[in-house]
Amino acid sequence: MAHTLRLTDYTTTINLNDFTSTRLIKYTPQSPNLSTVDLTPESLRDGGERIVTTRRNVTESAEIIIIGSTMDAVRSIVRQIEALLRQAEEYQKRHVGARVYVELDPGASGTVYRSEILSGKVEWPDDTLSMWWANRKTRVVIAWTRRYYWEGPEIELPLTNGNGTNVTGGLTVYNHDDGDAGHDNYVQIAGADVGGVIPAPAKIRTLNTYNSSARSAQFFVAHNAFSTPTSFAHILEAENRNYVAGGAAPTADTSSSGGYRQGISWAGFQSTLPARGATTYLP
Predict the structure, then answer these.
(1) Which has the closest alpha carbon to 7: 122, 104, 118?
(2) 110 and 164 share one domain
(3) 123 bridge partner residues
(4) Which residues contact 43 (CB under 8 A, 6 or more apart)?
(5) Residue 251 placed within a domain
(6) pLDDT tens across 215-245, in order?
(7) For the whole model, what pTM was predicted?
(8) CATH number of the domain encompassing residue 120
(9) Closest alpha carbon to 21 in 92, 61, 71, 82
(10) Which of 3-7, 136-140, 236-240, 274-278 has the highest mean pLDDT?
(11) Strands 58-67 and 101-105
(12) CB 114, CB 103: distance < 8 Å
């Protein structure tokens, strides 16, 4: 099966293995190198704790053959490749224009992965002007530096809360969380539904179906990956406070969140300055 390897900014796409003007000879995706920091409390102690591990951008290359009806046609393809690589460099410097990606579909699997190119160049072989030139073809090596990861196709994750279980296509979320049925301000995503190896950016879409004339001004979103939202009390209702000695019980109130309210009263106030000479943390 033929592998798909191409360079694209989604306006201009160059297929590096189309079996007409280009043939892929060799390409192996490389893994990122690691940078680490070890913490050893004592200079004479073996080993230590590895407190930092980071992955570096990947530099790799693909060898291809370019075929044309004339050498000008061959050079035109090379220039298109060089133009995309130059565009990638300019985007990193100025963030103007479009990003450039290398796309890979190994074995024509139907799943295309992409990685953003940061810089690159085209290297001509030593014998370019000999038999290659006469046969209107050339072998070149395209070298690039890309991100340390590959991005796969976007996948919609099923959501769960009091309004549905493992729902795709959208789930109702409120701006509060109380005892009323379905009033949840969270969604839960099962870990088994999240693929890949490293954390990836999430695309969150919201639709105001409550009152189309009221504009939503601000959204606050937190990521809680270390507990279960259904059992994590992330909001403490006032009527749920612990009763102190002499404290009153909650009062039923249908207009209040959860159907109850809690009142606290006090009389007067008093403030006391520290005595002269007392120990403080102030200079």
Answers:
(1) 104
(2) no
(3) 141
(4) none
(5) no
(6) 777 888 888 877 776 677 666 666 655 555 4
(7) 0.75
(8) 2.40.30
(9) 71
(10) 3-7
(11) unpaired
(12) yes
